[in-house]
Amino acid sequence: xxxxxxxxxxxxxxxxxxxxxxxxxxxxxxxxxxxxxxxxxxxxxxxxxxxxxxxxxxxxxxxxxxxxxxxxxxxxxxxxxxxxxxxxxxxxxxxxxxxxxxxxxxxxxxxxxxxxxxxxxxxxxxxxxxxxxxxxxxxxxxxxxxxxxxxxxxxxxxxxxxxxxxxxxxxxxxxxxxxxxxxxxxx
Length: 187
Fold this sequence. Notes:
With 187 residues, this protein is α/β, with parallel strands linked by helices. The protein is built from eight helices and seven strands. The chain has helices at 7-15, 32-35, 37-42, 59-69, 77-83, 99-112, 129-142, 155-161; strands spanning 26-27, 30-31, 44-47, 117-121, 147-151, 164-169, 172-178. Strands 3-4-5 form a three-stranded parallel beta sheet, sandwiched between helices. A two-stranded antiparallel ribbon has the order 1-2. Strands 6-7 form a two-stranded antiparallel ribbon. The two termini are 23 Å apart.
């Protein structure tokens, strides 16, 4: 959907970041209200368009905080950084990183919590074309083992990477389609 269509609001409600006033939401066949907001937040990862990293801290410390806030032990930080192409960056200050590197730290922050669902809000919105492609390829790879729910206004990205596209307009679903015949290896 285009700007203002309700994409980020829907994502924030689904992830537990915002409250909702109507309808019902289920996670693992249980209602959100029975699970509690803390449960949802601790069991999902969120990749923000503007990264939401603590710039004055190291990459490792940003990841450590995410795991500790979720009540988990930060055991796999080095492995996760390697997975997102940032091995050797653990002690780097976030303020010294490029936009693409910051976005990979944001992805690592979602992964280090070892969650089942990753929510991504315009994860390529602040990136150049090359970094956008790298991030989308990374998210597509992650979608093989985790549910990745991404919002974007970039229809081209949807058709190239998505398995399912739900289009919003003014808070309403105007289309819902499966993209079953897409070759994700095309460049």
